[in-house]
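Re: the pair you flagged

First of the two:
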Amino acid sequence: MKLSTRSRYGTRMMLDLAQHYGESPVQIGEIARRQDISVKYLEQLIIPLKKANYIKSVRGPKGGHELAKPPEEITVGEIVELLEGGINLADCIENPDTCDRSETCLTRGIWETATRAMHQELNSITLSDMIKGHKSANELQGGKKCIQKK
């Protein structure tokens, strides 16, 4: 499974907001500049995050966006699941009726186990954990260096 830019960039945006939690609202242009993501794309990502009450907007000259919950209450798993529309490795995991072989499939169990492990790991990491460094960047990236292509 490859995560889309929606969840990767959405997580970066949420982490940026978490780093400024408790300060004044952050303007989308500032996030776009710091994260090297277009304002238009971030505006699209904010919509579902606002609907799910992860982000709130503040109007006015000093307005912008801020987290609607403390960073320790938001997990990476929640963000990814929302922006990906679920994080199952195979359709049959959430809905066995999508496959005629669900009942007898020899590979379905491994996809269930892997999905469960991914859910567990992503839901164990909060935005606060990432900021505080409870898990090192190396540990969070599985020992590999994260390379972002522009």
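Second of the two:
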Amino acid sequence: MRIIDLSLPIDEKAFEVHRVEIERISHRAGVKKFNRVIMRKTVWGKLKYLLGVRLLKKEDLPDEEFLSLEIIHAPVHIGTHLDYSFHYGSQSEGRPAKTAEEIPLEWCYSDGVKIDLTYKKPSETITAQDLEAGLKKIGYTLQPFNIVLLYTAADKFFGKPEYFSEYPGVDISAIDYLLDRGIKIFGVDTMGIDRPYRFMLKEFLEKKDPKVLYPAHFYGRIREFIHIERLANLKALPSQGFKVICFPIKIKQTGAAWARVVAIL
């Protein structure tokens, strides 16, 4: 058995549109935080803390070190994650949209298939015809509950501004193609399923047509689907013959959740 990591990290040093901060409390600083947090829970404790009293001293600890602690301040759309219908809108298929902790786990472990779409340009979209041609090329017929991975190689730009501007989007026809064949989850190695902002906004400002803004995401209000964004390392996969595991972190009432997505060969 071989496990291939298909996930990107949450990295505060990578270029991102939204603020990402990881507060890193070292082993040495951990004892200071412990005293501050524990003692400030009561008025009497706060007073003693201000007077210099400490419950725990570094000399009380092995190697004078406490436990490290990292606190992440970041959107759920940073790093590899699954988007569900609440992200797309408050309603999906005429019902209240579902949040990420409601993703059926049985959908998140299934046979995977990779479709090579590296020829698509950033200004273009991946269509149903592209998917059909890609599947024909590898001699594969989609089965219900397959997890389909759309390989564009855009993950090579991760950490740079190009990651947000150099990738193709996914056309509604491609989403229909997958859903009509019983696919519940598909994934992309791009930062989103719609075309980059620069193309959508430019077209909107020229045409004043709101339909050009996030059409793939907003289509989740019409048909319910789940997609994985920010996959990586798809080049290491064969086109078929592997399992995908993409269990989302259980975060209450969010439209997306981080996941450590892997393939098993």
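The chain is about 20% helix and 20% strand.

-B.
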